């Protein structure tokens, strides 16, 4: 029986799963974040090799008949190809497909291989795939390519508004108190200076996302404006992607994923639902409960032309797995 190695490479962690052609999960592993854009392509692929080494002690390449890797940092087709070439060059498998992690999100949450997906985790991105295979995607290179949002972007906005509220350049907001509480500082400026000198690592900025949502829910107009803008972006990304491949005027599943969206904040979720109801009334919103590694593995089983029962077996494994299980 043939096997596939599925890879879900995220900014904070990388999940790897060895799956048999009949959908049986043979082994799983988790390791460091997948960061080809900052650490380089070889270092990113090293992460996969390190996980497989722990997951399959004593195993030698090739590790599977096919590798399906859906990863962060593969925002452009040329980046996908560079990662694919590195994996092939190491002999991990003779058959490799590399795609952006939004494709895995779509496949994990949708009932068919087509539809749309919007991810809002550390960053934000979207994709749409038509039944005929046409694809709409975005460069997702941050502000350089017109992006706004994601957990990091939200946290920056929260700190920006808090700083301006404290020094008088902006309106008063509960975000100032939230910043002081989260980082244990006497003032917002003290937190800003600590970030500037590296006394507070930038990774901690993400801790402001949950307080931002809470302050917005309590009625703070400044933080609510940030949440409203995020809902607009999530709606825009999905509807524009659907329009580009002709999915806007017919029923279409839109899978929402990433930590910010799967938290199901009532205010944010309600605003997103209202946005899609107005701009894409045929859209069916799905907040997936399955991890993206499932989408990568399903893509791999599709490549192997596995039967429907294999796909169901794979989904069933992860539906019954403990929370956090890779």
From TrEMBL:
Keywords recorded for this protein, A-Z: Kinase, Transferase
Signal peptide: none
Protein name, as recorded: Kinase
Domain ATPase BadF/BadG/BcrA/BcrD type: 7-299
Organism, as annotated: Acrocarpospora phusangensis
Glycoprotein listed as a keyword: no
A GO MF label: kinase activity
Transmembrane segments: none
């Amino acid at each position: 029986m043939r096997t596939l190695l599925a890879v879900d490479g995220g900014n904070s962690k990388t999940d790897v799963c060895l799956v048999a052609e009949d959908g049986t999960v043979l082994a799983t592993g988790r390791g460091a974040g997948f960061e080809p854009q900052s650490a380089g392509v070889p270092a990113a692929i090293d992460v996969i090799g390190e996980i497989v080494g722990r997951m399959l002690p004593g195993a030698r390449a090739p590790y599977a008949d096919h590798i399906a890797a859906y990863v962060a940092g593969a925002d452009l087709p040329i980046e996908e190809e560079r990662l694919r070439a590195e994996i092939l060059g190491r002999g991990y498998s003779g058959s490799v497909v590399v795609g952006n992690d939004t494709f895995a999100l779509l496949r994990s949450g949708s009932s068919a291989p087509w539809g749309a997906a919007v991810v809002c985790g550390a960053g934000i991105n979207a994709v749409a795939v038509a039944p005929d295979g046409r694809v709409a995607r975005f460069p997702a290179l941050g502000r350089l390519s017109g992006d706004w949002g994601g957990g990091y972007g939200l946290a920056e906005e929260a700190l920006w508004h808090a700083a301006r509220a404290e020094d008088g350049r902006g309106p008063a907001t509960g975000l100032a108190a939230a910043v002081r509480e989260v980082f244990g500082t006497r003032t917002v400026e003290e937190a800003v200076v600590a970030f500037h000198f590296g006394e507070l690592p930038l990774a901690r900025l993400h801790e402001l996302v949950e307080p931002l949502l809470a302050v917005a829910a309590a009625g703070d107009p400044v933080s609510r404006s940030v949440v409203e803008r995020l809902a607009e972006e999530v709606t825009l990304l999905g509807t524009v992607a659907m329009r580009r491949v002709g999915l806007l005027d017919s029923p279409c599943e839109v899978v929402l994923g990433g930590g910010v969206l799967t938290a199901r904040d009532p205010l944010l979720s309600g605003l997103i639902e209202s946005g899609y109801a107005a701009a894409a009334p045929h859209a069916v919103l799905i907040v997936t409960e399955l991890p993206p590694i499932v989408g990568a593995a399903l893509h791999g089983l599709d490549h192997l032309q596995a039967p429907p029962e294999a796909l169901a077996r794979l989904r069933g494994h992860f539906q019954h797995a403990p929370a956090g299980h890779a």
